[in-house]
Amino acid sequence: MVKLCICQICNCGRHRCPHHPNGKTRQDPSCYFSEYGTQYHPHQMSRTVPVKPKQEIHANSGAIDDRTTNRVDYVPHQVEARWQRKAAEYKPPEGNMDGLTSYTRDYPEKKVDPAKSVKRTDTQRVAGKFEGDPTYRDDYRQWDIPARHTYKPDAAWEKPVDPFGGSTTYDSDFQKYKSSPAQPIKPTSQVHASHEPFDDRTGYRDSYIKHPMPARYVKEKEKYSPTKVPFEGSTNYSSDFIPRAGDRARPIKPNATTYASTAPFESSTTHKNDFKEYAVKVPEIKTREGYVAPQGDMDLQTSHKLDYTAKPIEVVAAYKPVQTSRRVEAAFDGSTTYDNDFRQWESARATLPEIRSSYRPPSAPFEGMATYKAHYVKHDAIPVKPIRPDASIHATNAPFDDATNYKREFTPKILQPCPAALLETERASYYFVEQARGHKFYQPAQDAYGSSSGAGEIQVA
Question: Under DSSP, is residue 188 helix (H, G, I), strand (E, B) or coil?
């Protein structure tokens, strides 16, 4: 006989067993089904080995070596003097130096006459004296302008003769008058007592009149009748969580008692054992050799001084003609080429064209054909049909075809309900068998009908 719980019958994932066991003991805890327990199985794993190295003291009993990387890599070698190339001895050229240069050879001296002046010598002058007014004097004449009247007061101040009276403008304008002080508007803070009796009538006392109230209904108290069933002191917590006998957890914390030893104190430390004092040689200091002056006298002659010696050379004379100032005693000629070439001519205003009044338009109609009509002949052309579709409604008597791709491709399918949702109903294909450890177990209908012939009727929840 196959028994299935709600968790196994459900195929939509929305139905679960209540998981509230009725018994007080749990003999087999592996019978509980859960998604976590079925997907994540326990695996045997080894403990992770720490990567941190062990803190051990590496001691060395050998003697200390005073060799360093500098002493090993940089070994002293025998250094020889650097080879130097000897300069060749200077040999002066034979013969005398020719002072001829490429400039004097290419540009020899030539006798050239001085350039003649381009300025014209024939000038027209007027013998008579100029009489008349220039344009400046004619336009800008001197006018008789009256002197401007100044409104500035006379700066001469006359000292008053009368003695000072002692009264100022302030005393004469603002005279002091005798007036009584203004009375304060603030009321006095004295208590105003009244001899009339106090009126204690209020709007509340006048509007709300006290009326007689009926007696309050008192509900009869029910008499306490104790229950005859004895009190059961067990709770869900005490029934589900039964105390178990177990050993007490041992603390992981180490013992805090002090460690005492009777052995004598050993003064040796790791620093004394590892870093022992060794005899170290004093490093040798290399002494620098003293300066030794070279033998012989120093020759201060250079190749430049030996090759380029001073020669007696004459100064090259310039070929530019000497400019001598020529003073002209004649009067200054103010005529220019502009005044001589561009003279002022007498010109008259151009006459405007006149409209002839003798023209008369023809009265007879024009007999002939214009150029526009002769060139542009009218032709009968078929109008171009528009590509835009007609906006008129095309009515048809055929029935409306509402078949779409969605309706043809996506056909409705009947979804079977979840068998766990139909449990304990008339359409249920499983029947209740038992409930144990928080799970409700059901049996298929065909198995239940097959076993009912010898086992009796089936229990329906």
Answer: coil
CA distance 235 to 241: 10
Q: CA 396, 400, 401: angle at the middle one, nearest 5?
A: 125
Task: List the one residue out of 58, 75, 7, 72 whose CA is nearest residue 35.
Answer: 7
Quick check: pTM over 0.70?
no
53 residue type, one letter: P
Which of 276, 280, 278, 277 lies closest to 59, judged by CA?
A: 276
pLDDT of 356: 66
Question: Is residue 423 within 8 Å of residue 445, measured between CB atoms?
Answer: no
Give the up-direction half-sphere exposure of residue 324: CA atoms within 13 A in the CB hemisphere: 3
Distances (CA, A) of 189 to 150, 186, 192, 196: 71, 9, 9, 21
What type of residue is 148? R
Distance CA 172, CA 178 (A): 16
Q: Residue 84 is which amino acid? A: Q
Residue ranges in 365-421 assigned as alpha helix (H): 371-375, 405-409
Q: Fill in the DSSP letter of residue 419.
A: T
Calculate the CA dihedral of residues 101, 105, 106, 108 and round it to 10 degrees: 120
C-alpha to C-alpha distance for 10 and 20, rounded to whole angstroms = 19
Model confidence band, residue 325 (pLDDT cutoffs 50, 70, 90): low
